[in-house]
Batch of 4 targets.
Target 1
Amino acid sequence: MDYKRPQRTIIVGGGVVGLHLARRLAERGEEVELHESRREVSEGADRASGILSISGLKKIGLDHEDSIVNTLYGAYLVAGSERLRIASGRPMAYVLDRKRLAKSCERAAIKAGARIRLGSRLVKTDLQEMSHDRSNLIIGADGAVSMVASTFGFPAIREYVLTYKAEFRSEEIEETGMVGLYFSRGFAKGLFGWHVPYSSDTVELGLGIDHRARLTSSAAFSYFMKDKASTSVVKTRGRALSSHASMIPLSTRPKTAKGNVALVGDAAGQVKATTGGGIIYGCLCAETLSRTISSGKPLSEYERSWRASYGRDLGFHRLAHSYYSKGNLQRTFRILKVLGMDGFLARYGDMDSPSLILKRFLLRGLA
């Protein structure tokens, strides 16, 4: 049977990745319709942290300028008594207001010609009926617990973390241009705790734990708040301004396309397992998907293409996550400091691309 080019793309999910895909497809002249169950795309957008690398933002081309709330120059990593400080003389990442970013992406998609249907809660029978019309493509950009994935029998994502975060007004933040990551099998088994400065007087504290942990993420967060790791950085804390819990996938689905249905972003598990960040790779894969659709190729080409382009780096992120979630990092940090890796990472590190860091390290070593 000859492949028949679909005439309409239906995107389920109005997060940043879904909106970015809608924009790119509309810019390529495709008919695209996005369904989002929320009344506003900004609703609940701040459940996730908003740290995005400047290099990654340049690659994906998001309209992010109006969303910047802080600029980061580095990070320090803490494990027990060891602290690895990686600071650059140039801006490395932005802290973005996720609600403003979502609205900006929505405006860009509408301007490009995409139809955005807010308050549109599709159920399984709706999706099945839409898929029966072979002139439709169905794209799941509907998060880790994807309705599209379950409706069409995609294999499960095997590994998740549960996160909890809260924003605090504080008068005393150690360094507003540095983010802190705190590794501990006690309060953050499976990921880490963190603090993210929004400004000189506002900070986000959060942590992630393995989904198989025997306590809730909010309970683990309570332990983190009492630990000296957080109290040593944010010395004066007021009441929480807001708090959020979420679920983040840490592994990709074994299959992300079948027939006229495909998954992208968190729904596909296209997330950095080291940090749980999903916007950069989700949007890169959305770009790959938009090219596949506009070229008239079957969605199996999207699967092949995104794995060829980004599968290696996502695999490196999973390996790094597996190492730090099981091992004692105090000794590792001590060795890295002796080797001068803190300085190397400050100068040549890339928070999105482990393979690029490895390549630079090998080239510097040979030189």
Target 2
Amino acid sequence: MKGLIGKKVGMTQLIAEDGKVTPVTLIEAGPCFVTQVRTPAKEGYASVQLGFEEVNPKRLAAGERGHLQANNLPPLRHLREFRGEAAELKTGDRLTAAVFAVGDMVDVVGISKGKGFQGAIKRHNFNRQPKSHGASDRTRAPGSSGQTTTPGRLYKGKRMAGHMGSDRVTSLNIRVALVDGERNLLAVRGSVPGAKGTVVVIKEHRR
């Protein structure tokens, strides 16, 4: 099981010796602590729970504090679960960015940027309507949205204006371009979901 919790730092570029430029996203990955190891014999499935970012204990719920104190762990703000067998890990282990290597393929999960309430053109990439023939005030309207007598209503799932963004998004099969174990930094090729400072989950890509 390869996985970490981290924070998106921002985007930059890596320049190779031959001058080739690679756009990358920097992620502050770890250090993470193993807070629980679930087994099929006890919980019915195999997984590992990791914790990230030490915080004032007063900022945690009593149940979270008790869960961590029972395993002699520091107060951690973010807890995430990673499915899969991990016989090599035990509660209390400390994981750093060094669990990954350059060239590894990973999936990055995060919350996309919130855009608020948006119209159908921005939200669903609709085309605008003509600006002529009396349609001067309909250029960015969604157009016809229903039928007449039959069925006389809108179907569920009709693409219309509404809240956009703030969704859980996974970027699949991204290559790790740089690993800095001392500073707990990962650089992955391309973009990942979320704004700067967003908590992301990095896990090994499985085909």
Target 3
Amino acid sequence: MWPPPPRTLGLVTLFVCAVASAWCSGSPISPSPTPQVVATPAPPVEVPVNESPAAPTAPTLPPTGAATTWVNIFGDTGWCGSPVMASLARLMTDLGGDVFLAGDLAYPNGTLEEFRRCFDPELGRFRSRFWAAPGNHDYQTAGAAGYFTYFGERAGPDRSGYYAIGSSTWQVLMLNSNVANGRNSVQIEWVRQQLRSSTARCTLAVMHHPFDSSGPNGPNPQQRDLWDVMYSLGVDVVVTGHDHLYERHAPQDANQRPDPVRGIRLFIAGTGGAPPYGRARAAGNSEVLITGHGLLRLKLEPALYEWEFRNVNGAVLDRGLNICH
């Protein structure tokens, strides 16, 4: 096991707080110099694609697959001719960790030929590290047949498009936002059962469509029932794609009200190579918006999580941490 990187006194205090939850009551805290997690969302910050921030200070881990607590997440990739995928492949080789794919993985129609021609040449080498969730472009082919054929067991044990895995000490739900997820749907009942039977303190969900977004594809009120179930049963983090940008939202409830104690934090990471989108509106709980390509990194600890958004050159443009519910 790799020794932990040096931490500031504030981070040490946070970790002790996370372990001794009776002392801290699970309240979210973010020590300096990481971004503050606040009850009132800060105005969104837009970072140009060509910005060159300071080099990341955190050491990168060697590739160790499922053994590491770091996971990498992005969607909206498999765009033929995009140089971004080669850059992401180099980055994932350096960083290691499982890769959770948030849908729209072969453009434009999700055919098996498009997966082989537009996704596989750069990213297929990481197949043993993938866990995939489908997007709407994957369903441009009937039944998402190309997607399910390409990913096989890495898209779940059947072709429902939703399944559960464990990562570190976390429960991870890979969900299908393209099929029915209303209050009485089969998928929502499955989510309820998974969350009620889980013994994990912390839960992450990955799917394609965001509940809200400052991009052109938000909000998505059809996700409210699913969000309400996840909120009521303690999900900590949801990561999506769909809008081709990175956005971090403050924790919120199913009525999109800020809730720093029990709310779900939403990340959008549709940054895998499709042409980027800009801001179309101001989502109510948006904290940071970045208009470039890259990937989201999450470090899944027993009682907390850290996040980093890295551009394709490996520079960290957003980072922070929070305690699980």
Target 4
Amino acid sequence: MQETPELPARWRDLFVPGHLTQIAVLCLALWLHASNSMLTATTMPTAALEIGGLHLISWTFALYLMGSIVAGATMGLVVLKLGLKRTMILATFVYFVGSVICAVAPSMPIMLVGRIVQGLGGGSLVALVYIATDRFFSNRLLPKVIGLTSVLWLTATLSGPAIGGAFATAGIWRWSYGSFAVQALFLIVAIVFLVKEDKKDTSPQPAKIPFIRLFWLAAAIFLVSLAGAEFSLWRSPLLVFLGCLALVFFLVRDRRSSDSRMFPAEVSDLRYAIGSGLLMTFVYCISLMSFLVYGPLILMELHGLNPLMAGYVVAAESAAWGFTALIFSNVGSKGEKWVLRAGGITIFVGTAMMAFVLASGPVWLILIAAAVGNAGMGMMWGFIIKNVINSAKAADKERASTALPSIQQIGFALGAALSGLIANYIGLGDGLTQENLLSASFWLFTAFLPLIAIGNIAAWRFTRQLDLP
């Protein structure tokens, strides 16, 4: 019997009463996490001048990311134990507590505690959005839902600096964190009244939180981040090696686990589609970080932009990701293979462009290069999520859902650390000379081209293993 072709998704299919409330809850959950790092970028300098600890500003980002990754990696297990609705309420409450701590922090060490707690809550919310998206919506609607949430992510990225800057300029930076605590309370109310228990939550399975594996995962992120803080000819490579070794220990121990696995068993096995898909995601995310970390500095020093203008040039990356995710969500099943393959090539082209135009300019051409690289990731992101989750075994659906944001953020953390190593090896940390800036503008992007090429090979392998039309 000939199979009935799947009907294409329409935008109006999302805007029906049941789906509309679910989308609203998921968007608010994403907003709380996505806007936080950009908001912190514009509030923390003012906060540090008031409460002290100017030398610890970088850790307000690093500890948030570490908490976010560790929490995100456990959400599949916690959902199996507590159910989706209760887990969402718990994660939002943790985020609320972290926001309150940041709002009232009398010193930088207390602020860092708040950032860790915020990271635990924010990372949990992102992972739960992926799980809920897979549960709430059919496969044919997933690309459009991802496109819609990508636009929300874009809005958060563009609004975060303005919101934080407005509070800081008014001398009430604490209220920026207080406002997010209030929004977290609104989200808790929305979850209680708008999110229904589904059939997967009626008989939660017992699961243990794997603290030893979480230690190895946190150690991996901490070590590679520490390696990029200050370059040392022997210490920095050693820290990167130890960080990678800790990540390997985490993956090996997780694979050998049974019911408490955090990731699918095939996460590091390239014989399976899910292994190729996650490798592709991992190396692409590593390669997209260098402009975010060092782009504003180079734009200000070489091209004379002020910090706000430089920040919004960087935000153009997120804009490209969001817009292309939205545009390509209309691609049917027959186009998925070519979108996944073309996206990686686009990332390669954008990164190569950046290596040659960042130093020389003009700024509008730098803006295009930044947009091209992230547009490649945006155009394929919805299809990565859909096909990675679909390629997982039935028992591993939640694990595959949480693996995606975890792999993504681990890649971002490692990319930031490697960017720091490259920049500090060149000598950028010793002085912002013309020679150092020009060299960094080239090597911060050229050095990642081999990794992107590996990602492209994994992308072609991924599409063959999926046997897409």
